[in-house]
Design goal:
single chain, alpha/beta, Rossmann fold, 5 helices, 29% helix, DUF6506
């Protein structure tokens, strides 16, 4: 099975050490995803360079970074790497503003990251960061993503972000699953990145 990462997901978590706090989600092996936690936004550039040098064709940034850091990261890695970033739709704006305020106050808001990864088994491919309220689950399809989202609603999760092989239909299922009670962020790419992975 080929577990060379095809995607790097970079997530900012205060106190994280990117040399230690990383996890490989293999899925079916065709599109393995490496999660890397960083302590501050500016550390994303070094991880992006590392991923690009290793031949990873996609990099995705968490919702705390925004479009400006998406642009900075894209400039660092060059045109051969697609760079996406999580953003939130209109239905989530009021809730995500409250979450941002909680983060700003130093609160560890329980967060769930869902990685859409074909061939993955959500019963096995799970990761929890010990020093923060962060859980990451790889899911193979929309049904599994919605099931995890419903569980998150029951558990009091405050924020959900979606990464990986997304479609609007999958994101919609997750939003409906949480009954618009949890803000749901979705990774997106710039217009020039809408084609396939670079060779």
């Amino acid at each position: 099975m080929n577990t060379q990462p095809r995607r790097t997901v970079i997530v900012e978590v205060p106190g994280a050490d990117p040399a230690r706090d990383r996890h490989l989600f293999a899925g079916g092996g065709a599109a393995a995803t490496e999660l890397v936690l960083i302590p501050a936004t500016d550390a994303a550039l070094a991880i992006a360079r590392e991923s690009a040098a290793a031949g990873v064709p996609r990099i995705e940034l968490c919702g705390g970074m925004g479009v400006a850091w998406q642009a900075r990261t894209a400039a660092v890695v060059g045109a051969r790497v697609r760079v996406g970033a999580v953003s939130f739709g209109f239905e989530s704006l009021q809730q995500v503003a409250r979450v941002q305020s909680r983060f700003s106050d130093g609160e560890a808001v329980p967060t769930l990251l869902l990685l859409l990864l074909p061939g993955s088994d959500p019963r096995q491919e799970r990761y929890a960061y010990a020093n923060a309220a962060l859980s990451v689950v790889a899911v193979p399809d929309a049904e599994a993503a919605a099931a995890e989202a419903r569980r998150a609603l029951e558990q009091g999760i405050g924020l959900i972000e979606l990464y990986g092989e997304l479609t609007p239909a999958i994101a919609t299922q997750v939003i409906h699953a949480v009954q618009a009670r949890i803000p749901v962020g979705v990774v997106g790419y710039a217009a020039q990145d809408l084609g396939g992975d670079r060779a």
